[in-house]
Amino acid sequence: MITECPVPRPEKERILLGHGAGGRLTAELLEQTILPAFGGYEGPLEDASPLPGLGELVMTTDGFVVSPLFFPGGDIGSLAVHGTVNDLAMRGAEPIALSVALIVEEGLELERLEAVLRSLGKAAQEVGVPVVTGDTKVVGRGAADQVFITTTGIGKRLPGLSPSAARARPGDAVLLSGPIGLHGTAVLSTREGLGFEADIASDTRPLHRLVAALSPLGDRLHVLRDPTRGGLAAALNEIARDSAVAVVIDEGTVPVPEPVAAACDILGLDPLHVANEGCMVALVAPDAAETALAALRSFPEGSGAVRIGDALPADGHPGRVVMRTAVGARRVVDMPLGEQLPRIC
Fold first, then answer.
1. Which CATH number fits domain 173-332: 3.30.1340.30, 2.40.30.170, 3.90.650.10, 3.40.50.970?
2. What is d(CA 194, CA 267) in angstroms, rounded to the nearest whole number?
3. Domain ranges of the chain
4. Three-state DSSP state, 305
5. Which fold does the domain 47-157 belong to in CATH?
6. Is the bond leading into 68 cis (omega within 30 degrees of zero)?
7. pLDDT (tens digit, 9 = 90+) per residue, 137-162?
8. Element (H, E) at 208
9. CA 157 from chain center: how many Å?
10. CB neighbours (10 Å) of residue 166?
């Protein structure tokens, strides 16, 4: 009697935390699984999109699952408002309305939920954008981590602005509105009890005023991007890829606060990969760089604005980002693969 060994079943691919990190795994998930289900999409993946047939209205949707709910400098409530407002701002739009959907875990203390909602409401009032609709669901214990928030924002594009990750041009100045790494290291330190939270607070804040200050540049403002998941490295790689240019930045010009640099050194993290929630990258025509910096620096949230590099012709390497180091060498700044710091936003 001859018996046959069963054919081994291949291991099914599974979702990893890294698929939500904003790096290469996220790009693969979008390109291979999510976008094909909707009929496919060709073109740059932006933070927000114009609504077809509705003139200058722009829409964005975002989900917030940050752990812990409260961290130095912010919480999931204010973060939900700021993140949504900033996604609209990166397409040159002023926020005009928000919706908020809550998924609440059974057993969450009502006082804790009230604190989150008070912070969310306060942040919306400070921006001047009303919460006009929403939804609430409660799930069983263990089906969510306390509370998840999904927001949708509607904005109206500022006259003359049409920034896009695909509009960078060789010669553009690469500007950064402030220091990097604060949000990711603040959240990680609080979650893991690492002790850095005494020196580091999240930079979560709205950026729409900075974008409005840049609006007089008109068509000379080519790209806006907030380096959230995946950090500055991911944002620059996306711009270089979508615009088919090379981007070169100078290590000495990228503002990394000393506590962030120390924390990243201890933890083995690259500050360029750490999430931010209160700074943005802008690529502008070279003759507009100084005007743009002056406009950014006129607001507290842009007081640390600097020029960190330039967009260059691809020369056979479209999509490449390179850093000139302090010792005169060059290193390629890769798109992060997966998640260094899970549950950051």
1. 3.90.650.10
2. 10
3. 47-157, 173-332
4. coil
5. 60s Ribosomal Protein L30; Chain: A; (3.30.1330)
6. yes
7. 999 999 999 999 999 999 999 999 99
8. helix 208-214
9. 19
10. 16
DSSP reduced 3-state for 112 = helix
Place of tokens 């291991």: 11
The letter for the amino acid at 189 is S
| Tokens describing residue 217 | 């540049």
Distances (CA, A) of 317 to 238, 243, 325: 14, 12, 19
63: buried, middle or exposed (CB in 10 Å: 19+, 13-18, 0-12)? Answer: middle
- In contact, 231 and 306? CB cutoff 8 Å: no
Give the global pTM: 0.91
Structure tokens that stand for 303 in this block: 């007081």
3-class secondary structure, 99 = strand
Alpha carbon distance 304, 125 (integer Å): 26
* Tokens read off for 34: 């999510």
Residue that has been written with the tokens 């054919």 in this structure:
7
Lookup: tokens for 174: 């690469």
Q: How does pLDDT run across 77-90, given as a tens digit for each residue?
A: 999 999 999 999 99
State the Cα angle at 230 between 225 and 233, rounded to 5°: 70
Confirm if 208 and 161 have CB atoms less than 8 A apart. Answer: no
The DSSP output letter for 234 is H
